[in-house]
Write a sequence for this structure.
């Protein structure tokens, strides 16, 4: 990762990505704490529940900005490829889990797990692609 | 949209997508009927639940093949943008739904809907992208 930070677009990407990801975790923990502590209802509860989606919109914007700013076509392609692998993996996983849930009665899939699982798959794909293109 | 099939890569993409989506629908219906009729359990139930993911994997391969075969860099970029919008839509939607499900106790999100949600965001974004670059 050290060499990546020499690239200005990647540096900006990491500077934007890390705080947004931290914001996601903080918002998620805050909402969890707030709901259990104060038991809000109605519109306030709906608003609180939607809050964790806002940093995710931020992360999408961060990725979009990186793809627009990155001059190095190889690096841009690497991120696109790894995201597409992540997308494929998450669609496959949710599809398999969905059918297992319907027919084999496995534990219900929590929809908010899609986001962390996507980034886990994307991370694995990035490592594999970097190893392939080294 | 009518001019797109003149492009051989797009034509192949359409045909492959139609084939994999068709297989996905057929497998989904077959599994539903099989479970309804024979009530399989154990390993057999798990293997059957895995079947639609094969068609999904075919769809991911179809996208990969299109991106590899498409000579027109603009068209390829358009597809990547639409895919990333679909991905972004899925991540925001499932996170919002997941939070609402946890805190507001709305109806459980069936994981198999993720594939459909992806396509809705993908299709909704495509005309805007085409209009933007016309």
């Amino acid at each position: 990762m050290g060499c990546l930070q020499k690239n200005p677009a990647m540096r900006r990407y990491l500077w934007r990505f890390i705080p947004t990801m931290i914001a996601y975790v903080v918002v998620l923990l805050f909402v969890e704490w707030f709901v259990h502590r104060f038991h809000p209802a109605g519109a306030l509860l709906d608003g609180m529940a939607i809050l964790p989606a806002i940093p995710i919109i931020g992360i999408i914007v961060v990725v979009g900005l990186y793809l627009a700013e990155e001059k190095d076509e190889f690096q841009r392609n690497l991120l696109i490829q790894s995201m597409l692998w992540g997308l494929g993996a998450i669609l496959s996983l949710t599809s398999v889990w969905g059918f297992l849930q319907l027919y084999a009665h496995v534990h219900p899939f929590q929809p908010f797990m899609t986001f962390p699982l996507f980034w886990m798959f994307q991370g694995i794909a990035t490592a594999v692609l970097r190893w392939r293109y080294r | 949209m009518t001019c797109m099939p003149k492009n051989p890569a797009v034509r192949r993409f359409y045909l492959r997508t139609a084939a994999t989506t068709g297989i996905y629908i057929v497998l989904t219906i077959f599994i539903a009927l099989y479970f309804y009729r024979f009530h399989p359990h154990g390993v057999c139930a798990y293997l059957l639940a895995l079947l639609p993911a094969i068609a999904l994997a075919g769809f991911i391969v179809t996208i990969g093949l299109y991106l590899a075969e498409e000579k027109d860099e603009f068209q390829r970029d358009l597809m990547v943008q639409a895919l990333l919008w679909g991905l972004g839509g899925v991540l925001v939607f499932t996170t919002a739904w997941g939070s609402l499900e946890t805190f507001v106790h709305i109806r459980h999100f069936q994981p198999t809907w993720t594939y459909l949600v992806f396509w809705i965001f993908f299709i909704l974004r495509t005309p805007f992208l085409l209009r933007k670059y016309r």
Remarks:
- The longest helix of chain A spans residues 73-104.
- Chain A has two domains: 1-71, 72-134.
- Residues 1-71 of chain A form one domain.
- The radius of gyration of chain A is 18 Å.
